[in-house]
């Protein structure tokens, strides 16, 4: 809607009143058979005067509209540089708006303080919990207990997930983009979960890609490890997990239980567990959400395709293109 039509819509009551007044005046002149010349002369003067006042009012309306648009661009500021009020009601409105801005700033400061306290606490907890985890690892080295080692690996993974979740939301998170050989990264992730592969008797079909990608090695390793963990969790005993390259795409495929078609569009949503998560009762709905956030920040893409009972295929587009869901 342009400014002129918006202004006319605002002034329609006044225009209707003037039209009714002109119609009544014309009717009176006609009924009393008065000469038309005075009516036309007076109408012409009123029309000229009305056009001048209308133009002046329209200019003020446009100026006011530009001022409000300028203020809209600064709506996130703690205080707005409001123009001088024009009348008592505008002064009341501005006082109300200033009170709202002050209250909003106070709430924002309080929320930031609470968030920082919570972040500091969970960061401290995640670092402190690593000490007993390391101690349990040393004790298990003295007496091999494969099942306990596997559970300890899960604990380490969840602690790392907490730390990465906190870092991801931090404004100080740094991303170091540099050429990274892909195969050593994949082998390291596979070695990390070697015990899980052995315990669940799941085969790993790893085909070297021979590629070097421009990425952040630490964050891409986190994504790969999370996807391998998911594949291990939902692949039954005797299954197969395949890792291979397809051009600029890294593919991680499993022969697991798959994902229902109606759940696929939402798998990257924060906290969404889907049918499998509700059945398993152990899913947090955070892993794939973090993967998507990391890939978006690295300007990579991630897509998932799956069928129930036939497995899941995840594609990591490392060509630094946009992400999506199939």
Structure keywords:
two-stranded antiparallel sheet, 326 residues, alpha+beta, disordered C terminus, single chain, 5-stranded mixed β-sheet, 7 strands
Task: Briefly characterize the structure.
The chain is α+β, with helices and mostly antiparallel strands. The protein is built from 11 helices and 7 strands. It is elongated and about 115 Å long.
Briefly note the structural class of the backbone: alpha+beta
Q: Count helical runs.
A: 11
* Major sheet strand order: 2-4-5-7-6
* Sheet with the most strands, sense and barrel status: 5 strands, mixed
Unreliable runs, pLDDT <50, ≥5 residues?
Answer: 322-326
Helix and strand pattern: HHHHHHEHHEEHEEHHEE
**What is the tally of beta strands?**
7
Distance N to C terminus: 38 Å
Overall geometric form:
elongated
- In which range does the helix fraction lie? 55-70%
Q: Quote the beta fraction.
A: 5-15%
Round the mean pLDDT to the nearest integer and report it.
81
- The assembly state of the depicted protein chains is single chain
Description of the structure:
Helix 5 packs antiparallel against helix 6, helix 7 packs across helix 9 and helix 9 runs antiparallel to helix 11. The protein has helices spanning 3-10, 12-31, 36-72, 88-128, 130-142, 146-168, 182-192, 194-199, 217-234, 274-280, 287-297; strands at residues 178-181, 203-206, 212-215, 240-246, 249-254, 301-307, 311-317. It is α+β, with helices and mostly antiparallel strands and 326 residues long. It is built from eleven helices and seven strands. Residues 322-326 have low confidence and may be disordered. A five-stranded mixed beta sheet has the order 2-4-5-7-6, covered by helices on one side. Strands 1-3 form a two-stranded antiparallel ribbon.
């Amino acid at each position: 809607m342009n400014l002129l039509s918006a202004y006319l819509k605002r002034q329609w009551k006044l225009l209707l009143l003037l039209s009714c007044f002109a119609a009544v005046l014309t009717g009176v002149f006609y009924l009393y058979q008065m000469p038309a010349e005075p009516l036309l002369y007076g109408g012409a003067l009123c029309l000229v005067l009305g056009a001048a006042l209308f133009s002046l009012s329209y200019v003020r309306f446009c100026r006011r509209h530009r001022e409000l648009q300028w203020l809209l661009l600064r709506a996130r500021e703690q205080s707005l540089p409001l123009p001088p009020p024009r009348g008592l009601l505008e002064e009341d409105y501005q006082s109300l708006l200033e009170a709202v801005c002050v209250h909003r700033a106070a709430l924002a400061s309080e929320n930031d303080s609470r968030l920082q306290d919570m972040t500091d606490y969970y960061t401290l907890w995640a670092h402190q919990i690593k000490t007993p985890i390391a101690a349990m690892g040393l004790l298990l080295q003295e007496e091999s207990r494969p099942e306990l080692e596997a559970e300890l690996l899960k604990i380490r993974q969840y602690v790392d997930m907490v730390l990465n979740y906190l870092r991801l939301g931090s404004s100080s998170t740094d991303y170091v983009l540099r050429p990274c050989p892909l195969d050593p990264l994949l082998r390291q992730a596979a070695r990390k979960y070697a015990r899980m592969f052995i315990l669940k008797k799941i085969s790993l079909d790893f085909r070297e890609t021979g590629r070097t990608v421009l990425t952040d090695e630490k964050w891409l390793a986190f994504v790969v490890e999370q996807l391998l963990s998911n594949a291990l969790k939902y692949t039954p005993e005797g299954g197969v997990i395949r890792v291979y390259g397809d051009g600029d795409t890294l593919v991680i495929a499993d022969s697991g239980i798959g994902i229902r078609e109606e759940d696929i569009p939402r798998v990257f949503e924060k906290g969404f567990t889907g049918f499998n998560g509700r059945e398993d009762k152990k899913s947090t709905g955070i892993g794939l959400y973090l993967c998507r956030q990391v890939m978006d920040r690295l300007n990579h893409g991630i897509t998932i395709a799956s069928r129930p009972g036939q497995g899941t295929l995840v594609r990591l587009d490392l060509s630094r293109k946009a992400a999506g869901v199939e």
